[in-house]
Write a structure and sequence with these properties.
Helices cover 28% and strands 25% of the residues. By secondary structure, the chain is an alpha/beta fold. The protein folds into two domains: 6-208, P-loop containing nucleotide triphosphate hydrolases (Rossmann fold); 250-348, 2-Layer Sandwich (Hypothetical Protein Yjia, Chain: A,domain 2), CATH 3.30.1220.10. Strands 3-2-4-1-5-6-7 form a seven-stranded parallel sheet, sandwiched between helices. A six-stranded antiparallel sheet has the order 8-9-13-10-11-12, covered by helices on one side. A hairpin with a 2-residue loop joins strand 11 and strand 12 (311-319). Helix 9 runs antiparallel to helix 10. It is globular, with a radius of gyration of 21 Å. The N and C termini lie far apart (52 Å). The relative contact order is 0.14. Bound molecules: guanosine-5'-triphosphate. Residues 17, 19-25, 52, 102, 160-161, 163-164, 190-191, 289, 291, 306, 308, 313 line the site of guanosine-5'-triphosphate. Zinc chaperone that directly transfers zinc cofactor to target proteins, thereby activating them. Zinc is transferred from the CXCC motif in the GTPase domain to the zinc binding site in target proteins in a process requiring GTP hydrolysis.
Length: 357
């Protein structure tokens, strides 16, 4: 990267938050609010199948997908290369936004921006926002370390999904979050009533510099070694099952793993919704997140599948492009995922009578 770029350094926003907290939903609002400012978005997803990029609503938004790994560990080296490559076309965008995976440690992703001078010259980390699911966060804090790390490193904690909890719950939650991170600005909102974007944009990280480094991350000074480490190899398994056509990709990150499925035969939508709901109810403690698009019989549109814990939402997306053979893509993220059971359950929901054209 060239030197003396400080004046033109691109502002960077990191959006973190546990699986399904509402990062992509917030990102869509953020981009809409910043109309006229050209964002470049880095979408990092755990599974082989990138789903989030397809859920970005602003047309023509520049989205780069980094899938099948986590920027905070296995893809950390890729981030450096990407930032380098991106700088060469820096006249094409005004700001950089990174949406992390739901289990990323944002401190590791932010570190290069804060302590690596070559990057700091070109990119200025303006804010890290942690999206918190008002309803699920107690469970997530109890069950995982990742949710706590994300809150600890945030400049701004945005309590999301306030529509799903009672008002009284929010004051207790705010106190809990303040105990975890006393330095963050705590805000709240939800997708229906909106987010306090003006306050978020007014936040100036420089006012807080030096105060918010948790253990494991360091301030601007004192580093004389490269921050980006070579990636440890992800543990990848690949199976193929000719009768149902799913592709499995599994890798482990901390104790959380993901399973991706691709099916080229349509689902029976009623059976799918019913079976998945039952499965989630039984497995709610293990399955943190399901997301994807499915091809359902007789539906000209993609069917969007979203679940956080055992809350399942099935909605209609855009039409399948006529030139594209529809395919269902589903990602399951959780602990001790039973791949055989999941595959069997999904295979049972396929439309058995479908005949390939
Ligand atoms: N009730 C309610 N649901 C919400 C709100 N925000 C997001 N959701 C829903 O929560 C689900 C997950 O939202 P996403 O924005 O995809 O969450 P995410 O954090 O990007 O998910 P991952 O990238 O998989 O970690 C979707 O079904 C959203 O529609 C909200 O404020 N209220």
């Amino acid at each position: 990267m060239d030197n003396n770029r400080y004046e033109t350094a691109k502002p960077v926003t990191i959006i973190s938050g546990f699986l399904g907290a509402g990062k992509t939903t917030f990102l869509n609002e953020y981009i809409t609010y910043r109309k006229g400012i050209r964002p470049f978005i880095i979408e990092n997803e755990l599974g082989e199948e990138g789903i989030d990029a397809g859920l970005i609503v602003a047309p023509g938004t520049d989205v780069f997908e980094l899938n099948n790994g986590c920027l905070c560990c296995s893809l950390n080296e890729d981030l450096f290369d990407l930032l380098d490559a991106l700088w060469k076309r820096n006249d094409e965008f005004d700001e950089l936004i990174i949406e992390t995976t739901g289990i990323a440690d944002p401190a590791t992703i932010a570190q290069p921006f804060l302590v690596y001078p070559e990057i700091e010259e070109c990119y200025k980390l303006e804010r890290t926002i942690c999206i918190v699911d008002a309803q699920q966060i107690d469970f997530q804090l109890e069950e995982t370390e990742e949710a706590r790390k994300q809150i600890t490193f945030a400049d701004i904690i945005l309590i999301n999904k306030c529509d799903t909890v009672r008002k009284g719950h929010l004051s207790g939650l705010e106190e809990l979050l303040r105990n975890i991170n006393p330095f963050a600005v705590i805000l709240s909102g939800d997708k229906e009533s909106g987010y306090p974007l003006e306050k978020i944009m007014a936040f100036n990280r420089d006012d807080f510099d030096g105060k918010i480094f948790p253990s494991g991350a360091t301030g601007k000074d004192g580093h004389d070694h490269p921050i980006l480490h070579p990636a440890p190899h992800a543990d990848v398994e690949n199976h193929s099952h000719p009768d149902t056509h799913p592709n499995h990709e599994e890798f482990h990150h901390h104790s959380i793993s993901s399973l991706s499925f691709v099916f080229d035969r349509p689902f029976n939508l009623d059976r799918f919704g019913h079976r998945l709901m039952m499965f989630l109810n039984i497995q709610a403690k293990n399955i943190y997140r399901v997301k994807g698009f499915i091809w359902a019989n007789d539906e000209p549109q993609k069917v969007i599948v979203q679940s956080v814990s055992n809350m399942l939402a099935i909605t209609m997306g855009e039409r399948w492009p006529p030139e594209e053979m529809p395919k269902s893509r589903l990602v399951f993220i959780g602990k001790d995922l039973a791949s055989r059971g999941l595959e069997k359950m999904l295979a049972q929901c396929l439309d058995k009578d479908f005949i390939y054209p």
